[in-house]
Amino acid sequence: xxxxxxxxxxSMSIYGEGAYFCENCDETIYPQLRSNTQLxxxxxxxxxDKCGGELKPIGTTEEKTLFPTSVYAVSKQDQEQYCLSIGRxxxxxxxxxxxxxxxxxxxxxxxxxxxxxAIFSSRLMNDxxxxxxxxxxxxRDFVHVxxxxxxxxxxxxxxxxxxxTINIGTGRPISVGEISQILAKGLNKNIEPEFVGKYREGxxxxxxADITKARxxxxxxxxxxxxxxxxxxxxxxxxxxxxDRVEAATAELAAHQLVK
Length: 260
Fold this sequence. Notes:
Layout: E1 6-11, E2 19-22, E3 27-29, H1 36-40, E4 56-60, H2 71-89, E5 94-99, E6 101-103, H3 116-125, E7 131-132, E8 139-140, E9 142-144, H4 145-157, E10 165-168, E11 174-175, H5 176-186, E12 194-195, E13 208-209, H6 212-218, H7 226-237, H8 246-255
Parallel strand pairs: 1-5, 4-13, 5-10, 6-9, 7-12
Antiparallel strand pairs: 2-3, 2-4, 8-11
Helix pairs in contact: 3-5
């Protein structure tokens, strides 16, 4: 069969920590992982190595050096490189789309790898408190699944993005703690999240998409606002009966010393 184009489903996880900016030094900073010493002291945020000031998270571009911090992230990095290399060698137009945090209807609510929107919804539907690591101030870039679909269609229809890696997100951060509150309110659950004060090995603090390249090469623009997307998700969730597997999964992580 003749391949016309290959679109690779990659992930923001390959970046590790996102990009930051130090206003005092007027400099963009790309930190790596926080140390266990820092995290054990519940010092969650990054500070500038030069001036000691707190760093501000900014949009992460595709040019950032990759620093995958999990087996999953390494696998995504490898998929990108394999597919782009094969595409160039065999003249198969190939595009790697780096999805940020996807959410939407028909997610597997009982699968702990589908993201916090699904996990928190599952907990709330079982009248359990969402479990939040660190202090809930960590931010992510949540993008609706329909915007992901639009990005893929754009990538298939244009040759401007061939052999490129492109972020697909919204560029708008929101904290994990805020997401929990929005979901509880939308499900009419008077349930506060449980901030456990622990951390997971390899977790990042902030990562937000810079979607300039997607706009320029794909004509991509996110259409679904977070409030609208979560409302649609919750309308669907209310008719589901998910199994809550958070406690068992957390216990397994702790047994392997991946939660501290």
